[in-house]
Amino acid sequence: MNVLIVESRPELGVLWQRHLERQGAVVSLVQGQNEAVEHLSEHAADIIVLDLVLGEGSALAVADFASYRHPNARVIFVTDTSFFSDGSIFNHSSNACAFVPAGTPPEDLAAMVEHYGVS
User: Where residue 15 sits, what CATH number does that domain have?
Assistant: First the structure.
């Protein structure tokens, strides 16, 4: 399974990456919209773990590009804000499959990636 993590906080992204790699996933970690689009232009992703609030760029733009470039890729949105806490993210992003707090234990996030990332 190919996983792309888009997370502005490197320490959090690396934590998630390590858990997913232990589960056997091939994981790429980028920090913003430009890096994510560049990665998705050249590599397939089965699932994308995407921080809703990026330090650079727009998470919704990344999700939109992914839906165009890799229509079967699913997106797990992660956030530490209450924005979209009403579930409306699913109205804005057709490839969204989950919306979880950034404080979700890494093993739980890995289980969601495994569940949603299986083709």
Answer: 3.40.50.2300
Question: What is the span of the domain harbouring residue 59?
Answer: 2-117
Provide the number of structural domains found in the chain.
1
Residue 37 CA to residue 69 CA, distance in Å, equals 9
At which residue do the structure tokens 């569940």 appear? Answer: 115
**What confidence tens digit (pLDDT) does each residue in 57-108 have?**
999 999 999 999 999 999 999 987 666 566 666 667 878 888 888 889 999 9
Biggest alpha carbon–alpha carbon distance for the chain: 34
Query: Would you call 97 helix, strand, or coil by DSSP?
Result: strand
SS3 of residue 101 by DSSP:
strand
φ, ψ of residue 100 to 5 degrees: the values are -130, 155
Mean pLDDT for the stretch of residues 25-37 = 97
CA triple 36-13-96, angle to 5 deg: 55
